[in-house]
Amino acid sequence: MHALAQFILKGRTQAIVVAVVAALLPLLFWISAAAVCLVTLRKGAAKGGFIFVWAILPALMWSRQGDYSPMIVIIGSYILAIVLRNSLSWQRVIQVALAVALMAGFLQQQFNGEVLEQVVQGVQNLMMQSSPGTSERLSGESQWLLQATLGVFDTLHFAMMLSSVLLARWWQSCLFNPGGLQREFHQLRLSPQFALTLIVLIVIATSSGGEFIRWVPIMVAPLVIAGLALAHGSVAKRSLGRSWLVALYVAVFVLGPYVITMLVVIAAIDTLVDIRNRIPASQ
What we know:
Blueprint: H1 2-10, H2 12-24, H3 29-43, H4 45-64, H5 69-87, H6 90-111, H7 113-130, H8 135-139, H9 142-176, H10 180-186, H11 192-206, H12 215-238, H13 242-255, H14 257-273, H15 275-278
């Protein structure tokens, strides 16, 4: 990965090659977005924009085939890189990522609604095959399933945009500021106003009987990220070792909703009491 970052920054031609080739290959468009972000973070929005124009051409090709994800992730990541370069605030990046992902989701629903309905129909068919007794119930909940599917797409786009910016920031940190991204991530803490807004929206969405279920996963995501940042920062401050973090991610994979709920609650509490500063550093 270091060599790839060095190759991208070696010159304009090299950056264009990586951005275009990665965008052309299936499921590698997030690397193309990361290349655009790296140039933007290092050399500014104008030079990053030149690479962005080339990266968006293959994304347009994919969109003509009904796949809008490459275009959404590349455009969104470029915007986030500009925000991070100008503000140096990961909370601001998360806020803008939320707005971009939701806006892109609604536009995709308008222009690509038939494909999304086909995806929902495919999910319904799989669930009916695995559990034939649920066919009648699922047929009456197609709208709920559509909203849930749209929420998953929105959250995936949000996560991929952030991942591309994080990868670019990690590349930049490795080459020019070792440990910089780690320090930034360890210090990530949402403001009380932002966290409270997210929690209120989550409560409204979950108590609406499924009408706004689409909002739940993407509103939970920033709190989960803040909870993970708190865990990473606390482990580093106490010098506990990576085994604790490995155990945490295994628990997320195995226990799923329970650990995610715990991360959300801890992140919300952290906005009020700043848990990290209350934890004594290791001797």
